[in-house]
Predict the structure.
Amino acid sequence: MIYIFHRAEGFYPLTLRGDLEAISNAINNPGTTRVTDSENRVVYDPSVEQTPVLDAEVDAFVQCAQNFKRVGQYGEARLKADIRSLLEAFAIKASA
């Protein structure tokens, strides 16, 4: 999916897998003022307070992504277990 990253100096498009990846990119790139998708839906806006639960889950996915970059040190089995538990947490919250 294509996401538009808005910044003070302009904007740029990125093709990413989904909203969580777009949010993670925005959080890790200070200066991003907003992220929208190709249908102009706001995916990330730092001026709007995010729910603490979502913030914690996004942070956990960001940590998993960073660990994935160094999977040799982290261990593939542990990384998969962490991702599986996060996905289960999302499923429980989505059905609640």
